[in-house]
Amino acid sequence: MVKRQDGPEGDRAIWQAARAALRAEAARTAPPHEMEIAAYLDGRLEGQELERVEAWMASSEAALKLVMAARESLASDPGRAPESVIRSATALLGGPAEEDRRGWLERLGSAVIAPAWRPAVTAIAAVIFLLVCAGSFELGRQESRYLAQFHAEPSDLDGPSLGLDDDIL
Amino acid sequence: MDELSDLPRLLSGDKKAWDSFVARYAGVIYAAVHRRLIPAGRVEEAEDVAQDVFLRLCSRDFHLLRSYDPGKAKLTTWLTVIATSAAIDHLRRQKGRAQDLDSLPEAALAEDPVTPAWVKIPPGLLSPRQTLVLELLYQRDLDPAEAAAILEVDAQTVRSTHHKALTKLRAHFKEGEGEG
Questions:
Q1: Is pLDDT larger for residue B103 or for residue A59?
Q2: Are the beta carbons of A16 and B138 separated by less than 8 Å?
């Protein structure tokens, strides 16, 4: 039974009588994940999402502690972490950086050619490449013509050779 | 510089992006962990816990970091939540099961099996915010301004929420008395 009292003590007594049931009801809500808690702290939740986080905070001492501590941390200047923390954390990820994984030619190119000239240099390289291809094609065509002639000589003599052979014979 | 500009490179496993991420956010993560460990007198464990946070962020192909949604919250806020949560979990593990009430399931703590029937509160009688305001004012003994700072509302809103909540509870108990 809730004793009838006036003023703040009466209010507290009412709350104490209801607290267990209120917390039990709030605890029925599924706990939010870290992304939702962060959104709550940034003031970006509303409606049911907001209610879910506040119900979780009302139901759990640990939840309330988490939100209060996170809010305090966000309100203060974080400062710099000890060097040892930075060193160990960077060591967690091995392997070369994306830049180091590029080929040596690409790296040499980016080191030698100024960024502003890179599109022009690429275009010139493409034109040179096309010219070389066209030249090679033309050269190949002439050579095949020459070879065709060269191979054609004996075959052209196929007919008369019979005669020659006849002569020899 | 935009705090998210390096994120795609980082998630592709680029070492340089990881190093600059660490350099940029180590302070945030360490400060959040440190702040939570101070009251427990376990500040010397802050480096280990911060290291665990970084490990969680990059393990399983950045599984945790991939769950970050820039549309929902700032990266700094999310990392603060992750780090604070890691520090709380660390303290909970250290305390052990026997003395730590926090380690018990909240539902088990909340529901009293011998609660008289008339104390049962119908679902939805109070909104989650009303319940939370009462919790902040009475359980944590905060004044309305302090509670307002946690909820990021003004103190007057807290006072009015408190008043409405108590009015509903009084009415409920009065009804219960009438029935009893």
A1: A59
A2: yes
Separation of CA B123 from chain center: 24
Of B68, B84, B123, the CB nearest to A73: B84
Question: Is a pLDDT exceeding 50 seen at residue A159?
Answer: no
Question: Is residue A92 within a helix (H) or strand (E), and if so which, with residue range?
Answer: none
Among A16, A23, A67, the residue to mutate for chain B (most B Cβ within 10 A): A23
Q: pLDDT at residue A127 above 80?
A: yes
Contacts of A79 (CB under 8 A, 6+ apart): B27, B31
The answer to whether the CB atoms of A18 and B169 lie below 8 A apart is: yes
The DSSP-derived string for B121-161 is --TTSS-HHHHHHHIIIIIS---HHHHHHHHTS-HHHHHHH
Residues 2-41 of A with CB under 8 A from B: 2, 11-12, 14-29, 33-39, 41
- Cα–Cα distance, A68 to B81 (Å, whole number): 10
CA distance A154 to B99: 106
Task: Supply the ipTM of this predicted assembly.
Answer: 0.82
Tokens 């010139």 map to which residue? Answer: A124
Among candidates A26, A81, A100 on the partner chain, residue whose Cβ is nearest the Cβ of B128: A26
Q: How far apart are CA A17 and CA A20, in angstroms?
A: 7
- Can you give the pTM of this predicted structure? 0.69
Residues of chain B in contact with residue A59, where contact means CB-CB under 8 angstroms, are 106, 110
Question: How much is the pLDDT for A81?
Answer: 95
